[in-house]
Amino acid sequence: MLVEKGKTFIGKFNKDDDLLLALNAFCGSKNIKTGVFSIIGAVQKASVGYYDQDKKVYTNNIELNKKMEIVSCQGNISLKDGKICVHAHISLSDEAGKCFGGHLIPGTVIWAAEYYIQELRGSELNRKYDSETGLSLWREE
Ligand code: ZN
Question: Residue 27 C-alpha to ligand 1 middle, in angstroms?
Answer without folding.
Answer: 18
